[in-house]
Design goal:
By secondary structure, the protein is mainly beta. Helices cover 5% and strands 41% of the residues. The chain has a domain of 133 residues. The strands form two sheets. It has a 34-stranded mixed β-sheet that branches. It has a 30-stranded mixed β-sheet.
Amino acid sequence: SLTAVGGTGHMLDGGTGDDVVRATGGSGHTLSGGSGNDTLLSVASGSTLDGGEGNDYISFAGSNSTADGGTGNDHIAVAGDMNTANAGEGEDLIDVYGINATANGDADNDTLITKAGSANNTLNGGEGSDVLTAEGGQGNVLNGGAGADVLTAIVGGNTLDGGDGNDSLTGSSGDDTLIGGWGSDVINGGAGDDAITAFGSSNVLDGEAGNDAIAASGQFNTLNGGEGNDVLSAYDGVNTLDGGAGDDSITVGGHYNSVQGGDGNDDITAHYGTGSHIDGGAGDDTVSASGYWQHVTDLEGNNTVNVYGTANTVLTGDGNDVLSSSGEGNVLNAGDGDDVLNGGSGSDILIGGEGSDTINGGAGNDFITADDFGNIVDGGAGSDSIVFDNYSGYNTVNGGDGNDAIHFNGSGNFNTVDGGAGNDTIVADDNSSPFSLMLNQFDGGSGDDKIQSGGLANTLDGGAGNDTLVSTGIDNQLDGGAGNDVLAGGAGNETYTFNLGDGSDAIVDLGGSDVLQVNGDVADWSNIDIQATKGDDGSFLNLMFSEGGNQLGDVTIDLANGSMVETLRMGDGSELSVQDIYDSALEISTVNLDAMSASLDAVLDGPDGTSETGDLMEMVFAADNASDFQDDPAEGEFFA
């Protein structure tokens, strides 16, 4: 047994055997155990302790001292301030009680522990599969080094770095910093607001409770935020991220990621990539996804979603969502709720679902569907297809520029439709009941439009261009507008409107008490002259309107099916019997229908799907009577 009780710079060497070497005072001593299982004890600052060979126990305090366990399985206890403990060879145990201390494990499987009262210490496991634990104190740094290490923080405020290797890191109930390093690590943050980082692939990072920040570099990583408002990020693709409960912020990059927002109002960003799946979960989420074939689904709540790129898909739930697309070929499906959908510059598919939606197709040839009441739909530029599949009412639809197709496949009332510029097709042909489709306004806008409507008391307005208007219902109003138009009515009481100066119109009617309404900017309607001519075979009646020798257009009424428009009503309210006009009309054996025939050939199909030529009846209708026209789509509908 050797003891230094004071002074400076004493050198004590136990030599062989199981020795006890002490420094109870002074400073700057050197204590060596030599061979054997020795015990070295020192409270002297600035001293050096070397266990040598054997399984030694070393305990020292003071400050600025260094202990080395040497070879063997040693146990070192270090207290004081700014001391260093080196495990040496063997599987060693180092307990740190002091502050600002450094404990180094070496190449074997060592155990390093900070104890209660310690603070701001650094534990380095070195090579080997080490166990590092922060049992007490804060501000400690645990570095696993190379090897499959186990790092645990029982108290908060510590930093755990696994280093290289497949490590296991467990945080405390406090606020910890956990770094996986390179390798496939398993990290659990525990309760508290933790910062978790891992490099490499196939890491499992779990923040658990608290507002955690979790980041992974590499692929095939799993990040779980747990409860709390977490920040999750992984940029290299093929990663799985789950925000858990709370208002989370999640960012991914690369391809084929899987993202679960979980409960809460989440903010999710998928940077340019391919084939990622994003599930927002419950809450009002904000999602931004760019790239190709990104899938954003199962978003409950009132969500805001922006997709950039090509062939991305968005599917939301029952909330009031705002969905926007920039790119080409994206699909936005808002589900139920009062939603806003913006198509952007590409050719997109926009599905409003039930609810009062606002849908803007933007540029491109978009496909748009909506249902229910109070929708506002604007196709924007491009040749758009707009479809209402189920009952719909009080909707406002504008096709915008381009050759648009607007279809109401179900019943609906009080809808307002404007085809906009372009050669548009508008079809609303539910005839399940006269009251299933009524009081709708269908305007073709400019261009050569086709409008077909069933139901009751609907208004069809062709606008400018050579239009074709077909009523398969009853008591509808047809106004061709400017251009050479074809107006075809059903068996009800139709009103056909002709505006003086608008061109040459043709009317085919299948029955009922019908009115030809003539309007125009006329000071004195008594100055309007009507020249009537009819075919010698009774197939048509032509009414030519003029004022003071100036021709103002004409209307030809097809009579081949035996039905006559009954009343001619002028703009001043005066009425004439069309039958009386016919009876007194000049009979001619031929009539020049070339202009009208050209128009009809371009817009009307025969029963076999090819354009018909021949007499006027064949060109206007393939149906023989009103029953055929209304009930047989193959023969009675021209616009599918």
